[in-house]
Amino acid sequence: MTTTAIHLLLLTDLVADLPVAVRLQRLVGSLRAHFGCEAVALLKLDGEHLRPVAMAGLASDALGRRFAVADHPRLAAILQRRGVLCFHHDSSLPDPYDGLIAERAGEPLPVHDCMGMALDLEGERWGVITLDALRVGTFDTQAQRDLGELACAIEAAVRVTRLETEIRALRLSGGAMLADAQAPREEHDFVGQSSAITHLLHELQVVADSELPVLLLGETGVGKELCAHRLHRLSRRAGKPLIHVNCAALPESLAESELFGHVRGAFSGAVSDRPGRFEAAEGGTLFLDEVGELPLSIQAKLLRTLQNGEIQRLGADRPRRVNVRVIAATNRSLREHVRDGSFRADLYHRLSVYPVPIPPLRERGNDVLLLAGGFLELNRARLGLRSLRLSAAAENALCHYRWPGNVRELEHVISRAALKAVIRGADRKEIVTLETDMLDLDALEAPAGADALPPVLTACTMPAAPLSMHQIVEASQRQAIRQALALHQDNWAAAARQLGLDASNLHKLARRVGLKA
Question: Which run of H or of E encompasses 88?
Fold first, then answer.
């Protein structure tokens, strides 16, 4: 493909109506074909890290990694330079993708060529594009010149993608999302491309701009705290405090004072007035984690605050007005607690004005590998390893495990396996590959023949708790719809054709099983 031809191809994609992820994936795929190389990666600068947004030819977990610029001298050198920078086969600088090239997964990269280029948007450094080839001489003078000539087209594709993201954000929330679309991600933010997580993020975007109380529902380790932080960050209260209260850690004797404050002399040891967590969150957000653990006596006072916007310090004569948005979270069924009398029904209805269920990891498909990639890179840097990756068997084991502890458990599994590898004598200067036995997943291993099961059946045969037949059927339907949408880039008509349904019936089914509002 000539330079003129790829220019035309990239320009054609610019005016085409494509989803953001598809546009960028086509960009890296076209560059890979044009240069005849093994891997291309487009990485966005987020603070001190480079975050992959599109890749071709790299291991499946690479898209979930975060490359610290300080740890990767090649990426740092590309960032600091304007124009194309080529690393020849005899470069002494370590390659950030060592062991991650899909064609040679787990192997040290043979003598090869690498080149990259920094990308700018509106006068600011946006990120980099990198290319790796296993054949020496692939990136000759002409190839470097070609990449330089394509810089404007690549930056235009990134610019169009950002504009589309901002426009969509403006339509969703009337402007509240615009700053977030441009801002760097927090170090711990959602990673994933599954339809389940896409739906969740969309829901959070919409509800963030309201003042409604939100109840986050989900198993332990799914990311309820991340959701609370995201809701606050996208809300009109983002400039004010977010105060986190772990209700399970509040002793009943101190809970009232911690939440509402006290005055001097209210109890033994109260030597001065002290504001509570509600006053600390004034103008901002109060996050009540594990709200189901609150004592009944405190629940009544919390209900009053939600109803009237007032608190009363322990020992005080008069109430105080507060302006606080409450976000609550629980991994328990508050409905059952209401039935057994351990949670007030009126408080439950106040807190759950807008309930947000967070999908468990086992319903997020290949997101498990993206998340694992982030934890692999984190442990690689922490342990001073040249490269840290998963074997194909280990990847398969992660995808078939039911994850009762969700993302938190995945993080611990990867960290523990990395430590085991070092303890067993792994050479820090070589590529360290984590095998299945290091993951300690044997106790809840997928049943024999699970590899042969369709993804829908696999997901449905590994529930977190015993399910009714109705719940199993709905879970299967949700999974089938999500997979069809993911396969067809969220095109509902194409997904309906694949599933053998009329498009209107697919929308109705999606609403019934909770995938659409």
Answer: none
Cα 209 from chain centre? 20
Q: 445 or 478: whose pLDDT is higher?
A: 478
Which residue in 489, 492, 497 sits closest to 511, CA to CA? 492
pLDDT digits (tens, 9 = 90+) for 273-319: 889 999 999 999 999 999 999 999 899 999 999 999 999 998 888 99
- List the single range of 144-153, 160-169, 216-225, 498-507 with lowest mean pLDDT: 160-169
pLDDT bracket for residue 126 (50, 70, 90)? very high
Interatomic CA distance for residues 250 and 244, integer angstroms: 12
404-427: average pLDDT: 95
The alpha carbon of residue 141 and the mean position of all alpha carbons in its chain are separated, in whole angstroms, by: 39
Count CB neighbours of 208 within 10 A: 24
φ/ψ region of 440 (left if φ > 0, alpha if ψ in -120 to 50, else beta) reads left
**154 pLDDT higher than 50:** yes
- Burial (CB < 10 A; 0-12, 13-18, 19+), residue 310, is middle
Q: Is residue 335 pLDDT above 80, yes or no?
A: yes
Residue 325, φ and ψ in degrees, nearest 5: -95, 135
260 forms bridges with which residues in the sheet?
none
Cβ contact 32:57 at 8 Å: yes
Specify the pLDDT at position 456: 38
* Residue corresponding to tokens 């194409």: 494
Please indicate whether residue 301 or residue 495 has the higher confidence score (pLDDT).
301
Dihedrals phi, psi of 269, to nearest 5 degrees: 100, -10
Q: Helix, strand or coil for residue 509?
A: helix
Structure tokens at 229: 């932080």
481-489 long-range contacts, CB within 8 A, separation 24+: 481/195, 481/506, 481/509, 481/510, 481/513, 481/515, 482/194, 482/195, 482/196, 482/363, 482/365, 482/515, 483/195, 483/365, 483/455, 483/456, 485/195, 486/193, 486/194, 486/195, 486/365, 489/19, 489/21, 489/22
- Whether residue 69 contacts residue 79, with contact meaning beta carbons closer than 8 Å, is answered with yes
Largest CA distance in the chain: 82
Which positions ≥6 away from 443 have C-beta within 8 Å? none
Percentage of residues in the chain having pLDDT higher than 90: 59
User: Are 196 and 62 within 8 A, CB to CB?
Assistant: no
Q: How many CB atoms lie within 10 A of CB 13?
A: 19
Rounded average pLDDT over 38-42: 96
Beta pairing partners, 185 = none
Q: Using H for helix, E for strand and C for coil, what is the string for 355-416?
A: EEECCCHHHCCCHHHHHHHHHHHHHHHHHCCCEEEECHHHHHHHHHCCCCCHHHHHHHHHHH
Q: Is the pLDDT of residue 181 over 80?
A: no
Task: State how far the Cα of 185 lies from the Cα of 201, in Å rounded to an integer.
Answer: 14
Q: What's the pTM?
A: 0.78
